[in-house]
Amino acid sequence: MAALEEGFTLTAVPLGSGPDGPLGVEQSDKTDQFLVTDSGRTVILYKVSDQKPLGSWSVKQGQIITCPAVCNFQTGEYIVVHDNKVLRIWNNEDVNLDKVFKATLSAEVYRIHSIQGTEPLVLFKEGAIRGLEALLAEPQQKIETVISDEEVIKWTKFFMVFRHPVLIFITEKHGNYFAYVQKFNSRILSKYTLLLGQEEKSVTQSFSTSVHRKFISLMSLSSDGCVYETLIPVHPSDPEKNQRVVPSLLLKSVVSGNARSGVALTILDQDHVAVLGPPLSASKECLSIWNTKFQTLQTSKELPQGTSGQLWYHGENLFMLHGKFLTVIPYKCEVSSLAGALGKLKHGQDPDIHAMTHFVNWETSQGYGLGSQNSEQSKRILRRRKIEVSVQPEVPPSTQLLAAVQKDSEKHIEVELRKFLAVKRTPDFHTIIGDVVIGILGRYKAEPSFYPRNCLMQLIQTRVLSYSLCPGLMESALEKTDVQILQICLQQFPDIPESVTCACLKIFLSIGDDSLQETDINMESVSDYTATIQDGEIEQQTEILQNGFNPEEDNCENCAQELIEKPQAATEESTSCPVTGKRAALLNAILHSAYSETFLLPHLKDIPAQHITLFLQYLYFLYLKCSENATMTLPGIHPPTLNQIMDWICLLLDANFTVVVMIPEAKRLLLSLYKFVKSQISICSELNKIEVSFRELQKLNQEKTNRELYSIEVLELF
């Protein structure tokens, strides 16, 4: 269970002059005191329990504070930056910021971070990080550039992992997001490419992090209204390499997808998150708490005056701007259970629940700011549980994954799989992946409703699988008509039997366009296939196809006459792609697959004639596209080659010519192919004649070795 208590206004007057609300709310060295930095010139120290300010400091007129003030927990002093480069340090006794310690830095500061147990860190806008003491020793030191041009820092967090400070910051460039993780015990900066959001135009609007053993859990609230979780390893397998991390859907439609501002996300504990934003497109903004373990809404509170999309949490208090006033809303979260998630947990059922709720701070893994509210009994309980956990041997991620496949839900298997894929690969990695796939497929046969396609997608993308290692994978995908998995298998498996290739081809040709529209297909091999060729280009293309062959010499007078009678239909057939872009991408995967002609031909005869005709029309269209340029290649990434196109045309005609020739719809296509083949034969004959003449010339040149400095020779060709 979780509950939001009655909130109260912390500021009695509107805070700041900026339109975006406060710059930040940060913990002071006292548990109940917080530094509030407005977006103008002022820093105010508040005592929340008394709801009153204890001190206020402002920079001079004309200056502006550019990052939130923080407390140095080692000295009890306060730190702030104004005008991007000017750093100020003061304490409670100081009155005028103009007279306190000042240091002018050589680069612009993005944020100062400070938590208990370590010195403050300064993050610069270009991605460099410095400790406060080292920076104050030489304020004008050169600051290196870490991130690339046009890359902008969007969010950052500082926390402790195994008693070592770690800083993570998220950057954005041209709609792409990257995560940088700096570990200060090893001085290693790791970079990750974040594949955030499922929609093509989705924009990530808020981030939050927590620490789970060997992983940093990065949660993101996307503009599609969903919350995604990305697991980043604390100890990456290759720290120097830019790695790609894939998110999983954690919560669906927590806020309206139309909300472009006023939304925020923060992690409260292991199983609860707070979300700020409108739940429906027509509703007012709300503050809500969700249970991520059971994906249920626990509680919500309407905010009729609107918010700025900023949300901070410290201890058991949530801070936000409600209207023009900074508001504090206390909250309670109990230990996650199914009864509690459904609102059926009776109070007093477990005396340890309340104590355990407040003890772990998932943002810093240190628990500061919460210890004073815990009883001695709860501390003894936690110590006892820590001892019990510490003596238990750690289970390898591979063992956890294989055990989860047998009995757990699809979501839990996906979480365990991402944990396994995030650790360093071992020599038996491909064997474990094969065992996991076999386990999933075995459970699928026993439970037809169990089909974790997201897990299967991630397993295939490891590129260690083959058809012989898991033959049931493509069979299951064929049963489910899962064309996305079939496409990836065709692209990556080198040993697919010809019977399975033909079964994939049948599905690719027969599946409806409506079903394909809703399916995510890799379109790299398709480039502008749906565009049409201009009429003038078609006429010019006809001449190219003839290769010097005169159409007046064509003996097929009836064929030519029939083509002249229906010029409009011929133009439409030649100028437009006969299939949609997604179907074309699937058919291209077939063209790239390996095969043996002997074993493939019998299976091609089982494909319906109308589907064979459609495939031939598409192949003929590809040939016309190839002939548009001198290189005889198609545009795009890894498109079909001319040889692949011609080989498949021959295969289809060899296997099905007697059937296709009886279909009226295929008559025009066969006539076009006939004229094309005849023109190629004619030009090959002419080239053979020229080859003989050139061979004679070569002999003449070899015989005449003695030449003067200048000579004129006349060679006659007969």
From TrEMBL:
Keywords: Activator, Nucleus, rRNA processing, Transcription, Transcription regulation. One of its GO terms (cellular component) is nucleolus. Coiled coil: none annotated. One of its GO terms (biological process) is maturation of SSU-rRNA. It is found in: Nucleus, Nucleolus. Transmembrane segments: none annotated. It comes from the Eukaryota. Its main location: nucleus. Residues 399-718 form the Nucleolar protein 11 C-terminal domain. SUPFAM superfamilies: WD40 repeat-like. This is Nucleolar protein 11 isoform X1. It comes from Tursiops truncatus (Atlantic bottle-nosed dolphin).
